[in-house]
Amino acid sequence: SLSTALNKVFFGEILKGLMHDLASARPFVRGVRGLGLLWAVELGERSRQDVAEPERMKTLAQKLAESHLHVHKRDNMVFVAPPLVIEEADLARGVALLGQALDAAWT
């Protein structure tokens, strides 16, 4: 329905803000990009051309699993695709858990 579609656009804008906040607070996040509820986080030092080290990505995967946050990871990318029936509080909580896992892997 139209109200459901508008609701997802609204949540997409919320996720956009959360993802940009997540990136701006972490120098090891090279960038974020996405549309609606589909987003990607590119990891690696912004000032260098190399990608995230495999050991960091392994630690990140472990921390995400401990938080029961299931996202797709490939190379130096983390893909965020929450369910379309997500609520705003759960969306914010998920991004916060992702931030905590990133911080644990990069400290």
Number of strand elements:
4
Please tell me how large the radius of gyration is: 14 Å
Largest sheet: 4 strands, antiparallel
Dominant shape: globular
How are the strands ordered across the major sheet? 1-2-4-3
The SSE string, one letter per element, is HEEHEEH
The parts where pLDDT drops under 50 for at least 5 residues are: none
Query: Between the first and last Cα atoms, what is the distance in angstroms?
Result: 45 Å
Structural class estimated from helices and strands: alpha+beta
Strand portion:
15-25%
**Mean of pLDDT:** 90
Roughly what percent helix? 40-55%
Textual characterization of the structure:
This protein has a 4-stranded antiparallel sheet with strand order 1-2-4-3, covered by helices on one side. The model has no long low-confidence stretch (mean pLDDT 90). The chain has 3 helices and 4 strands. It has helices at residues 2-24, 54-66, 88-105, and strands at residues 29-35, 38-43, 72-74, 77-80. The chain has 107 residues and is an alpha+beta fold. A hairpin with a 2-residue loop joins strand 1 and strand 2 (38-43). Helix 1 runs parallel beside helix 3 and helix 2 crosses helix 3.
Short synopsis of the structure:
The chain is α+β, with helices and mostly antiparallel strands and about 110 residues long. It has three helices and four strands, in the order H-E-E-H-E-E-H. It has a four-stranded antiparallel sheet, covered by helices on one side.
